[in-house]
Design a protein that fits this description.
Structural class: mainly alpha
Shape: elongated
Distance between the termini: 45 Å
Number of strands: 0
Helix content: 25-40%
Length: about 100
């Protein structure tokens, strides 16, 4: 932190600022704020993967059910491997890495 403490919370660390805002609402301090301008640089990355046709159709179906496009659907390994998940139920993933014996 540049000046040693936050202007509204009087906190001396980012952790203290977080703890303050966990229990306070900005609307209670709106009159103490000021307008600022800043730029944010966001870089995105797109990675494509080859999928079996059957798996690709299932991913498309899941995306459609969730109301998102297939290219934005990004299931985690945990999500893919949990018993009862769509890909496991559809038999599209199998083998020891996808069994839930533990």
């Amino acid at each position: 932190m540049k000046r040693g403490k936050s202007s509204i919370s009087k906190a001396k660390s980012y952790k203290e600022i977080g703890e303050f805002w966990d229990t306070h609402d900005l609307s209670d301090f709106w009159d103490q704020t000021k307008r600022v301008k800043f730029e944010v640089g966001i870089e995105s990355e797109i990675t494509y993967y080859s999928l079996d046709k059957k798996l690709a159709r299932e991913v498309q179906s899941i995306a459609q059910k969730r109301g998102v496009s297939a290219d934005t659907l990004s299931p985690t390994k945990t999500e893919l491997t949990l018993p009862g998940t769509e890909l496991l139920k559809a038999g599209l993933i199998q083998g020891p890495a996808f069994n839930s014996s533990d």
